[in-house]
Amino acid sequence: MAELTYRDAVAAGIAQEMARDESVVFLGEDIGAAGGVFKTTLGLLERFGPRRVRDTPISEQAIIGAAMGAAMTGLRPIAEIMFSDFFAVCWDMIANEIAKTRYMTAGQIALPLVIRTANGYGSRFGAQHSQSVENWAMAIPGLKVVAPSTPLDVKGLLAAAVRDPDPVIFFEHKGLYSTKGEVPDGEIVDRLGTAKVVRQGEDVTIVALAAMVPKSLQAAERLAAEDGISATVVDVRSLVPLDTKTIFEEVRKTGRLYTVEENPRLCGWGAEIASLVAEECFYDLDGPIVRITTPHVPLPAADLLEDNAVPTVDRIVETVRRNAG
Amino acid sequence: MDVVMPQLGETVKEGTVIAWRKKVGERVEKDEPLFEVNTDKVDMDVPSPATGVVSAILVAEGATVRVGEKLAVISEPGSQATREPGVQETRLSPVVRKLLAEHGLDAAAIQGTGAGGRITRDDVLAHLAERGAPQRKVVPFSRIRKVTAERMALSWRTIPHVLQAVEVDFLPVEEVRLAAAEAWKAKEGFNLTLLPFVAHAVCAAIREFPNVNASVEGDGLVLHGAVHLGVAVDLGTEGLLVPVVKDAGNLGVADLARRMRGLAEKARDKRLSADEVSGATYTISNSGKFGTLLTAPIIDPPQVAILSLDAVTKRPAVVGDALAVRPIGVLAQSFDHRAFDGAYSASFLRRVKEILEGRDWARDL
Amino acid sequence: MDRATRLALYRSLVEIRVLEKRAYDLFLQNLVKGTSHLSLGQEAVAAGFAVAMRKDDYTFCTYRGHAHTLARGAPMVGVLGELMGRKCGLMGGKGGSMHLTSVEHGAMGSYAIVGAHLPVAAGAAWSAQVRGTDQVSVCFFGDGTTNIGAFHEALNLAAVWKLPVIFVCENNQYMEYTPIREVTAVANPAADRACAYGLEKILIDGNDADVVHRTARECIGKARDGGGPSLVEALTYRTSGHSRADPGKYRPAGELDDWLKKDPVVLYRVRLVGMGIEENALRDIERAVERAVDEATEAAKACPPSGVEVIEKDVWADGGSSWRN
Q1: Beta strands B214-217 and B161-169, pairing class
Q2: Same domain, A11 and A110
Q3: Most C-beta atoms within 10 A of its C-beta, which of A222, B134, B343, C73?
């Protein structure tokens, strides 16, 4: 067992898979010689060499296109897009080409690739470098979508993503890169499509993703201490495939659902979960489903503004408190 | 937040709402005009006291209200409080509706502990838990049950009970009873049962076996002579009442039937007098309608015996050397072994049997 | 060039010509729905390269891809079946005319978003480089593609990484309905940009099958030997409109007639006769092709339409489309 940072877990996960399978290759901007702008890929070029670890020009379309071409011809590429906001620059490659090609070719073309990216708020880089765009990916059929919240989940889910035969978009949260967690030694492979109950409660169910998970846990502690409200917290982890079984089970136990989403208000990932619960767990609900989200605005840059735009522990506590009973 | 009619002048006592500027459900900002009011001094737009959503308008355009009266309610935006504060929350959530329907419950019967008195899922579940689950529940004794319990326990503690039983062929009785049944019912208004026949036979047998109709007092047996026959009436879970047919030994079958019927009705209506439930010297208990084979009844002190009549059913019987089908029933007597012994009791029972099987009952009706 | 190669070239030209004409007829009979982009007049580019390629080389082309897919050996019934939405289509009706794919024949897809497949072709070439095979990737696109971002990114990456990919611009003079010269900063949209990537300017007569074939052999050979990418501009003309919906009224008077005089199929036949190839041999090829196209047409017509059961198939490698448990 070791304590790893979230960023170290990224490198460890990639290394684990590249060591295991010769066909795994890795490309992106500044990922090799520099070890990644977030220092998430240190040591990989040294260990696996320039044939399998490539630094690219600033060419998002070429990076993703090359990953696609390599994936369909026998390799298992991992491509990095430095900031998830840049998906907009190569969205054709992701949404039109990679997501749809297996379907259009009736299964002739296989695309076992992973696109990993730094997602989310907290670095004070401003609106174009701070978005959470996992909901964009969730909305496109043909993409699997994962967003871990702990170093253990990073390593395990990255391994699962690389071994998955389908395209997986792997959303790392840049605000969590410095967080630490226990990661057992040895090979770790998790499963896509599985959520985790990280806190078991009785009164309300809070469903959260990535950086919103630790906030929800803090809020749960305060709700227990200050209001006597016992909260379950579910870390969704995987948006596609979605672990509806676990989510429904936990909602049915309490009858109340809150989602905590970093996405702006409209069409965040929680809207889909709220809709599914409203449809399939309607008769188990003891109160309205409430979504706690960033308002529908771009993210501001100043630290106080950015921190208060996304859901805060205070806002989660107040919202649950206000809607209790 | 409540919106009230403002005081628009020192002497102004009331105002007329000319027009509402916002509708129910519309958002309003603090200080935005909410309604126009007319008083004898002035016409003006009244600004909203808060930012939120107009959740209720209580006064129509054109109405005149006194200063301070509530006109409308503004609720916080984004909260679920779209009901007037102070008005009981009567909306039922989906899970509450489902539970009410599943268990046939009335919402009115359930105490709501949620916001605004809302009935929550836990409220319904708590109600169900109290109501009738196979859980421990305390049902206090009724007065009759209490008395019955005390007397039964006392009897069992103090009297050495012995049980003896005989099988009786009720054909002779049944032939007469059934023949007379229709006419009896028409005349008397109730059914003629086996019980008065048994009672008459018991009273007759007691004349030959008086110790059965006695009480133990100190070191002696007090023979009562007259038979005051207790007839147990089952009141369901409430207990037993044993009204007494006074001087039963001098009554014929028909009179016994009438007296027993009368007392039973009074018992069920709780109209028995103290006199009517005391002084029994011998008791008969009838479990027949429940189909039991045999009962070991508990003696009612200070009596020394009690007889149980159980179900009379058609069974194969040997008559002479042939097999026949006869209505057979078991008479079982519990007796106090301090008063007499098995032989005495058995002889008594044999006599009762003989009377039941041998008497010409037609002459009794 | 030996006789066998020339006959192979001629056969390929005739196959493309006859099949594309048949596709046009079927469209008029309303058996081909949607749209179709035909290569009538541009046969020599497809034929010239296909005959020069190895079975394990990769072809990437645009939505005007019937010719390339056919030239690599994909079955005619599969091509016509796909156009008509039948079960026997190359992709079972899932992709349609613009996405013809036959991985088995190295036809790695026809791509409908302008420029998208250039990085993908580069990626396939990179894959060959990583795996250490000497496969090459040949990427066909139109003159309009040279002005889109992905063109630049792919060319640059291919040049920097010295990838074994040949980019072939079929300059048919028109970007959809607009003359290419009116929207391009240089006279030869591909050839004049090669120097931007340190590549040789290669401008050829795209209607001369021999010239195309020779150029193909040179560029493919260079790539196989590790010499890196090439950018070829082949001048040609499409004798039908941009797509079936286009009657081509934007062409100046006489332009079409001039180009019809340079019909690649007719020209090549004349040359072969001039070289002493027997009339019989040529007629045998023509008749065989006619017969093959007729048979394929009847077979495709007789085939049932694709069933609705395939609608939810082949999003993922497991053949399904499930996004939840």
Answers
A1: unpaired
A2: yes
A3: A222
What is the domain-level CATH number for residue A148? 3.40.50.970
Give tens-digit pLDDT for A79-117. Answer: 999 999 999 999 999 999 999 999 999 999 999 999 999
Give the separation between CA C163 and CA B231, rounded to whole angstroms: 113
Q: Does residue A159 lie within any of the structural domains?
A: yes
Look at residues B23, B25, B5 and name the one whose alpha carbon lies nearest to residue B15. Answer: B5
Instruction: Report whether pLDDT(B79) > 90.
Output: no
**Residue A88 sits in which domain range?**
2-183
What chain A residue is nearest to C122 in terms of C-alpha separation? A66
Q: Characterize the bridge pairing of strands B33-38 and B43-47.
A: antiparallel
Contact B102, B91 (CB under 8 A): no
Q: What is the mean pLDDT of residues C172-197?
A: 93
Which of A183, A204, A219 delimits the end of a domain?
A183
Domains of chain C: 3-303 (3.40.50.970)
Record the tokens describing residue A155, joined without a space: 């390593």
- Residue count (chain B): 365
A296 is a domain residue: yes
Per the annotation, the verdict on B103 as an active-site residue is no
Q: Could you say which of A129, A173, A256, A291 is catalytic?
A: A129
A213: three-class secondary structure by DSSP: helix
Q: How far apart are CA C165 and CA C53, in angstroms?
A: 12
Burial of B150 (C-beta count, 10 Å sphere; 0-12/13-18/19+): exposed
Q: Tell me B115's DSSP state.
A: G
CATH number at A270 reads: 3.40.50.920
CA distances from B26 to A160, B21, B23, B32, B62 (A): 50, 10, 5, 12, 21
Total domain count for chain A?
2
How near does any CA of chain A get to the CA of B118, in Å?
7
| Pair (A47, A101) in one structural domain | yes
Cα-Cα-Cα-Cα dihedral sign, residues B129, B134, B137, B143: positive
A73 Cβ under 8 Å from any chain C Cβ: yes
CB C140 within 8 A of CB C168: yes
3-state SS, B173-228, equals HHHHHHHHHHHHHHHHCCCCCCHHHHHHHHHHHHHHCHHHCEEEECCEEEECCCCC
Read off the pLDDT of residues A116-171 as tens digits, 9 standing for 90 and up.
Answer: 999 999 999 999 999 999 999 999 999 999 999 999 999 999 999 999 999 999 99
Best interface-test mutation with A: which of C153, C163, C312 has the largest number of A CBs within 10 A? C153
Q: What is the pLDDT of residue B274?
A: 87
* Interatomic CA distance for residues A17 and A48, integer angstroms: 11
What is the separation of C-alpha B80 from the centre of its chain, rounded to a whole number of angstroms? 45
Strands (E) across A124-230 are located at 144-146, 168-173, 180-183, 196-199, 204-208
Give me the residue label for tokens 């109405």.
B63
Q: What is the mean pLDDT of residues C231-236?
A: 97
Neighbours of chain B (3+ CB pairs under 8 A): A
One domain for residues A45 and A130: yes
Rounded distance, CA A37 to CA C256, Å?
55
State how far the Cα of C83 lies from the Cα of C99, in Å rounded to an integer.
10
Quote the pTM value: 0.72
d(CA A117, CA C98): 31
C-beta of residue A111 within 8 angstroms of C-beta of residue A166? yes
Contacts of B138 (CB under 8 A, 6+ apart): none
- Pull the structure tokens for residue C103: 């991985």
Cα–Cα nearest to A54, from B351, C123, C268, B19: C123
Tracing tokens 């508990």 back to the chain, one arrives at: B298
Q: Measured between CB atoms, which of A54, A102, A243 is closest to C314? A: A102
| Residue B281 near residue B301 (C-beta atoms within 8 A) | no
